[in-house]
Design brief:
This protein has four helices and seven strands. It is an alpha+beta fold. The model has no long low-confidence stretch (mean pLDDT about 90).
Length: about 180
């Protein structure tokens, strides 16, 4: 038990340090996005796998759906996986275990709509530091991809974070 506590504490410290470094790099413009073709299903799997890596042993059930009508998108795969990981952490921060996270991708005209939601027993005191950190990282990566935050809600029964990203060639073009 003691070794597990030490390991989880070390992982928590690593997540916080990485988050602070990412915020600084994103805000300074040190992180830039490349434009490549990404398999959406693999992107969802990668984001979930990254979250699980930094939250070992947590009782979280995952569901993922791609109803976008396309299997691929344009963007920076590494940054978008980080965005998904951060979005999962953001919504999960409001709930204790056991929890359920649903990642859903849909389309609306020329945009992909990503919706990440979590349900479970309400957390008594969600970490304001985690919520703020993941919110900043997510919003900066969304900006880099010329997208926008559509919704960020939290209630007694569900937390949801929804954002849209351009589907086509303008995914990483500067906004007009």
């Amino acid at each position: 038990d003691a070794l597990g506590t030490i390991y989880r504490s070390g992982m928590r410290a690593l997540v916080l340090m990485n988050g602070l470094i990412d915020i600084a790099r994103l805000r300074r413009g040190d992180k830039t996005a490349s434009n490549s073709t990404i398999n959406i299903q693999k992107l969802l799997e990668r984001g979930i796998t990254q979250w699980k890596k930094f939250h070992p042993g947590m009782l979280v059930e995952f569901e993922m759906y791609n109803d976008a009508g396309t299997e691929v998108m344009l963007g920076d795969e590494m940054l978008l996986a980080q965005l998904l990981t951060s979005s999962i952490a953001l919504v999960k921060g409001f709930f204790e275990e056991p929890a359920k996270v649903v990642v859903h991708v849909a389309s609306d005209q020329d945009k992909l709509i990503f919706s990440i939601s979590c349900t479970g027993p309400k957390h008594r005191a969600a970490s304001a530091l985690d919520i703020e950190m993941h919110g900043i990282i997510g919003s900066e990566i969304i900006k880099l991809h010329n997208g926008m935050i559509r919704q960020a809600d939290e209630s007694e029964v569900e937390a949801e974070f929804e954002f849209s990203l351009p589907m086509g060639a303008n995914a990483l073009q500067p906004a007009a």
